[in-house]
Amino acid sequence: MKKIEYIKNSVISFKQWQGVNYAAFNSLHKVVRIGTMLAVYLSWFGFKQTIAQTDSLSINKKISLEEVEVSARRSTAVYSEVGRILHVISRKEIEKLPVYSVQDLLRYAMNVDVRQRGPLGVQADVSIRGGSFDQVMILFNGINVTDPQTGHLSLNLPVDMQSIESVEILEGPGARVYGPGAFSGAINFVTGSKSTNNATVNAMAGQNGLYNVAANTTIKTGKLKSYAAANVANSDGYIDNTDFKNHSIFYQGLLDLGTEKIDFQVGYNDKEYGANAFYTPKYPEQFEQNKTTFASVKMTTGTKVKITPALYWRRHQDRFELFRNEAPSWYTTHNYHLTDVYGANVNAVIPWKLGKTSFGGELRGENIWSNNIGVDMEEPIDVPGEDAQFTKFYERTNMSTFLEHVYNYNKFSVSAGVLMNWNSSLGIGVDFFPGVDVSYWASNNVKLFGSVNKSLRLPTFTDLFYDGPTNIGNPDLKPEEALTYEGGVKYLNDWFSGQVSAYYRQSENLIDWGRLEGEVEYQTRNLSDMDSYGLTFQGRVNVKELAASSPLTSIDFGYAFIDQDKNAPDDYESVYVLDYLKHKFNVAANFQILKKLTAGVNVQWQDREGGYQKYLETGEEVATDYQPFWLTDMRLQWNEAKYKVYVDASNLFDNTYYDLGNVPQPGRWIKAGVQVSLDW
């Protein structure tokens, strides 16, 4: 078995992310470091970082784990020490899958629920372990880019799928590591990790007028490594009013000055799309445009004790039209929103004879200008680039500090810490979020791990203030809180790696959009307490290790089960929180048909709890349960040294299904493309 081959689409247990450069947990047979998941709660008066070590543990004589340096805690860790659950999907694995957006890719991960409103990166709600889409923190090269307006917009990244070198998915609470927002998990997208000069171009076209052209390059000049990328994508849509246009541009620079390293990045994304029945089926001719601007700079300094300060900024502009074409007389204006997020953090790690002690903090400011979200302004201001005015404004500041200590002894590792958090606007004062993670190698093949962590999620601006024809916000909402217990066992040998894990989450004050019997409008409210239970089994069989001549090279499989004991009125109709993915089964097989011809087939079954109000053409609404469905995707690919040609079929058997309200999902969609990649 090749070194760490099983890691590519497997599970890495871990305690937290962190590292000096943005890394992908050794997806390409080398140590790559993930930029200190800066979204972690560090404040203007703290410190932290990562200390790279070359600790080593041979799992067994047949499996030589190349020392994979993972950001498994506030300080760096090697794979043998980690004690949380993390999925790592490498670029090599991504290129085997028929995916064109991060939303498509995340659908293959166990315990991740992707509910798409628009396909191919237009818009999707992503949740982990039955949580809501607002309970997942989204990070881009370690920087928290979660949208404070609404989680619907958090995946508006300034790059396309071709620029993603790896994806790291943390299951479970991450408040101690990342701060408010990582309530049920966190997802980090990593770019720019190539180590050689390279230029890559990808051109794809498909049914429904679809095309996507993307190009990126990595250039090393002296001490500076530059990564630049751009793409443009369009489609006429798979049904009426599902067309879209999308383009982005991105630059990342890594400057190595020896003991000091500087990482800076800037990007922009603009997408406009028909939003057929996105937020209400009563008005299917909806339209939306999003513009995202992002920039950050981080410096790492020091040798043994390393300090990492960082600054970042994200601006998101949103125009939502309830009527794309003709509008009734009562509709007088579109919705306009502009959010700004500013953050500053600093991290430090101090190694000493009893382990590693980490401390730090973050100061994060969030504000919004809008014409229907926030508090009334004394004087309206113009909307940039539009013939409209902002009439409302809202801002809040979040400050957090943390302290963590890690101790390793032989095959045993423990990490314990606490986050202190304060928010300026919710009247909750200072709160503490402790946690502890433990792992132990019971034998050369068996690893045990467990953790207990407390987490927090602040209400979004939409939760607090949004008022529309069918929705009413609630400025008196309380933050969500949860205590999660999790544990599991991992087994691996030279041809198999697998894991069984379970969790139990006690949640308080869960926020949901819903309505009681007799209510016309959906309102945000804090639900009563909720208990959640989950069990996951997944594994990978490296068939080549068992039968070298077999055309079947590998099989990946997994099953996730979730159950939630809700304390809500029987007549309560939930829009999000109670519509969780109860069962998810996935199996993927990869084949080597000819020397250069490969094929991949992925089959998935989903069964969702809950239902929705199906809107009929007569104007009536009928209570409808979500129905389970099967999806089959396939990729056929010809591989040459400098280029690849591929043909994909999504939803191969053309199944009709709904996984988010009244929004029908695409049927069979055939796509084909070519990728050319040159090193020098």
TrEMBL record:
Keyword Transmembrane: yes
InterPro entries: Beta-barrel_TonB (IPR000531), Beta-barrel_TonB_sf (IPR036942), Plug_dom (IPR012910), Plug_dom_sf (IPR037066), TonB-dep_rcpt-like (IPR039426)
Keyword Transport attributed: yes
Pfam family, one: Plug
Stretches assigned to the TonB-dependent receptor plug domain: 86-186
Keyword terms, alphabetized: Cell outer membrane, Membrane, Receptor, Signal, TonB box, Transmembrane, Transmembrane beta strand, Transport
Localization in the cell: Cell outer membrane
SUPFAM superfamilies, A to Z: Porins
UniProt topology in membrane: Multi-pass membrane protein
Residue span(s) of domain TonB-dependent receptor-like beta-barrel: 240-652
Family (UniProt): Belongs to the TonB-dependent receptor family.
Name of this chain's protein: TonB-dependent receptor
